[in-house]
Amino acid sequence: MPKLTPLLAQYQRIKEKHRDAILLFRLGDFYETFYDDAKRAAKILNLTLTSRPCGKQHRVPLAGFPYKASETYIDKLVKAGQTIAICEQLGDAKSSRELVYREVVEVITPGTVCRESLLDTRRNNYLVSISSDGERFGLAFCDLSTGDFRLTELGRNKVLEELERIDAKELLMPSSFQLKVTGPVRSLDDYRFDPHAGYERLRQHFGVASLSGFGCEEMKLAHGASGAIFSYLEETQKRTIDNITKLSPYRVEQFMWIDTTTRRNLELLERIRDSGREDTLLAVLDRTSTAMGAREVRRWILSPLLDLQAIKKRQDGVAELLESERRKAIEKVLLQLGDIERLISKVALEKATPRDVIALRESLTRLPAVKALLQDFTSSYQREIDGRISRFDSVCELISSAIVDSPPSTSQEGGIIKPGFDGEVDRLRGLTSSGKTLIAEMEAKERARTGITSLKVGYNSVFGYYIEVTKPNLHLVPEGYMRKQTLVNAERYITQELKELETSVLGAEDKLKEMEHDIFCRVRKEIGTVTDRVQESARAIGELDVLCCLARVAKENRWTKPTVDGTDRIRIVDGRHPVVEMMVAGGFVPNSCELNGTTQQILVITGPNMAGKSTYLRQIALIVILAQIGSYVPAKDAKIGLVDRIFTRIGASDDLSRGVSTFLAEMNEAANILNNATPRSLVLLDEIGRGTSTYDGLSIAWAVVEHLHNNPVVKARTLFATHYHQLTELEYVLEGVKNYNVACKEVGERIVFLRKVVPGASDRSYGVEVAKLAGLPREVIERAREILENLEEDEFLVPGMPRLAKSKDREVGPSEQLSIFSSSLVNLKEELSKLNLEGMTPIEALNRLFELKKLLDSHK
Ligand SMILES: Nc1ncnc2c1ncn2[C@@H]1O[C@H](COP(=O)(O)OP(=O)(O)OP(=O)(O)O)[C@@H](O)[C@H]1O
Ligand SMILES: [Mg+2]
Fold first, then answer.
1. Could you read off the pLDDT of 314-346 as tens digits, one per residue?
2. Where, in this chain's numbering, is ATP bound (predicted)?
3. Using a 6 Å cutoff on CB, does residue 589 contact ligand 1?
4. What confidence tens digit (pLDDT) does each residue in 223-255 have?
5. Which residue from 483, 491, 517, 632 puts its CA 20 to 30 A from 758's CA?
6. Which protein residue has the closest C-alpha to ligand 1 atom 5?
7. Domain residue spans in the chain?
8. Does residue 588 line the site of ligand 1, with CB under 6 A?
9. Which CATH number does 423-523 carry?
10. Ligand 1 mean position to 780 CA, how many Å?
11. Under a CB-based contact definition with an 8 Å cutoff, are residues 535 and 245 in contact?
12. Which of the listed CATH numbers 3.40.50.1100, 3.30.470.30, 3.30.1330.20, 3.30.420.110 matches domain 121-254?
């Protein structure tokens, strides 16, 4: 190992402490990265990787970017999932010739970012921590940018689902843990999750004798997880985390359980096909006006309530706003509010700029207007919200008197403090401006004294103030001028008097900047003392915003207030799908639904492809979710008996990327349903058993329905859409099963979808007609009709083998049937030899394999 230069030795010392971060090492006007960091950074940032000599024949890889443009580079690195350690020069680079002292001042990780440029205003950015005693799990999670801190404890079977719901940006896990999760994970030493130490840390942080005030005294495992979060935050932020002012414990049992598959299938937040955000329940529902409201409505969608009173409280809140003239006025004020929650967090973490502080004031001064508008409201939620919103008159006054109205974006360059706020600032300002006048006077005086009319006093950052005399006048330069610099046409001098003036002017300027910065920090600290009250107000505003938004959506879309109760009944009159309704403007056909635990427990829904079965299933689930959020619902009338969980098995959600076949994925989901559903649950089964051969699929589907019907522990209310007509026979043997179908009629050879769900089984499947709609060649359609007829006449050649190939024109036997099969083999062979395996990705190859197998299966 060659001997390191002192600089690299310093680098190594610092890097040692930040092994898993990219260390940005400040060198003058640049941030530099070295070694592997340089290689990683160069790749992500598209920088040129250079190298720097270090001893003989040894070069160190190096990549850097200018400090001035660092924001965008750092953002890019964090977005790429990297952790960044920012190492600054803390000593004075000018004054000492020795190595400048350097230290890491901030570590940015995906779960701890606070920069606006990296945050989505409409979503929380959670750092999650997990601990376990082998049996149960403790979770704690925190959005550092808002100060939101929540914790819970739960059993093994729900941990992964809950982690997905929280949508962790970074997960802290004890290093002895083996939990397979996606996303960035940081392993920390096990001792950092110690429950006892965690408890003490929480007590200390909040300055309380016990945690019972927060309602989480007993959550031992969550204490451990919380302790790890606090230590990690302090380590990365290099300071105490003053924006966390309370703990919000919860139990997963408080909320309707919506597993990950169901959340995806129902497209609550994202579209299935491309993860887009349009055409989702969130897109329809989120008409909020503030960032706090946007984050809140997202949380509401993911956690529908199970407590009837809490649901009613929200409903009443929405109802009153819906009828009130004042809603629009409230929305107007809300629209003018900034992200108060994040602004106050920046204040508490001493990251707020002068502009942030002004933005905060702009918002806080509008709170009394909101309170005034709330005065006439009587429902308990509005009363509570009004009580939670404080007035911040003195804070606003402080800001107004201290900080100028349009301050610069940094606190180091001066120009922040208003005249009249601080005597010393005013004096120094006077001094710098009078100093400048003195210098101007001196210039005039020297011109007169020397007779050099072109004599100038100038300034540059290297020499400070100087007197410049052009070459032709040099003979007039008097005694006492000291030469400092020679230019092509002129000489520059300094004098004793000029230097003295300079010291007082520049000294005053530096001092002024420093002083303004100090005063700004003091003011910021002062604002920080009301962090908890501002946060509470901001959160109340968020909830008010969601209530307004629900009222607005209900009004604009003609939704009605559902009755939610403790019965086992789900009765929807003329329900609509909230998202599809928007897409088929005006043309949506409403449908009713009656479910209960006895006579209408399982509805088997048949009907042709494209009829609207899946839409119907989803719309019922979405109406239930909306009702339990406290929202109005798209229906003429709805009575919803509380649903504890929604399970879905919808569509062929091939999960090739996870290496699970359609059929296996489907069976996993079915198993999950049968193992976890309760009589309070709502189960949607859409074409279960489709991914395998007919008889297998049918048998499985049949058995699943029987189990759901007969097993009293499971006995969930179920909607079952299927193409297996045989399943409609279940109605005759099981009391709780009822048949429905989505009606359509034939007009000549065409099929017309009526979109109406009616009692009884559908008479046939119309698959061939739909195929025709899709433009399959005429010969194929006709031939398909023929084969279908044969099948429907139950023409079997040998037991179990339909006489598929029987044709009106020609009589065929088993040999010809074989020939269909063997001709498909020829096709297969051809297809296989055409494949260009080198040019395919594994997924493409797998997809192709699926198609080929299907081709083969279709002829079996
Ligand atoms: N009630 C309705 N009113 C108007 N249009 C509807 C209605 N229900 C469904 N549609 C339209 O019909 C399309 C097909 O509906 P859907 O996917 O629910 O059919 P499906 O019966 O599940 O078909 P498949 O058997 O092929 O899965 C939807 O995309 C929607 O545009
Ligand atoms: Mg469907």
1. 999 999 999 999 999 999 999 999 999 999 999
2. 607-614
3. yes
4. 999 999 999 999 999 888 999 999 999 999 999
5. 632
6. 588
7. 6-108, 121-254, 286-392+530-557, 423-523, 563-773, 813-857
8. yes
9. 1.10.1420.10
10. 25
11. yes
12. 3.30.420.110
